[in-house]
Specification:
Layout: E1 3-7, E2 11-12, E3 18-25, E4 32-39, E5 46-52, E6 58-60, E7 68-73, E8 78-83, E9 92-100, E10 109-110, E11 114-118
Parallel strand pairs: 2-11
Antiparallel strand pairs: 1-3, 3-8, 4-5, 4-9, 5-6, 7-8, 9-10, 9-11
Length: 120
């Protein structure tokens, strides 16, 4: 059974940083795509970042490009989202997703989400 669990969400001041973690089990990271999505109250769900485990390629939403970095630790079956220069618009529940293949479609397995709040 696939299991995905996010952690690391917190309240942070504008300009601050957080690192989210996505721990997974039930499969290896060799042939999947790991994505981060977020959803803020009253807004549509947004794809934030995606990493293909087969070749390590990454992609980012324009809104986070240059501030967020996705990375992985295969030994720990864990993917991270380093978030720097956080702004109030980054406030959302962040979800980790795992899809078979090389694209983050959001149709695979989801975690329960972790709350990130950016506020002074």
């Amino acid at each position: 059974e696939v299991h995905v669990e996010e952690s690391g969400g917190a309240l942070v001041q504008p300009g601050g940083s957080l690192r989210l973690s996505c721990a997974s089990s039930g499969f290896t990271l060799g042939d999947i795509a790991i994505g981060w999505f977020r959803q803020a109250p009253g807004k549509e769900r947004e794809g934030v970042s995606c990493m293909s485990s087969s070749d390590g390629s990454t992609s980012y939403a324009d809104s986070v490009k240059g501030r967020f970095t996705i990375s992985r630790d295969n030994a720990k079956n864990t993917v991270y989202l380093q978030m720097n220069s956080l702004q109030p618009d980054d406030t959302a529940v962040y979800y980790c997703t795992i899809d078979l293949g090389s694209s983050c479609t959001g149709r695979g397995s989801w975690g329960q989400g972790t709350q990130v709040t950016v506020s002074s």
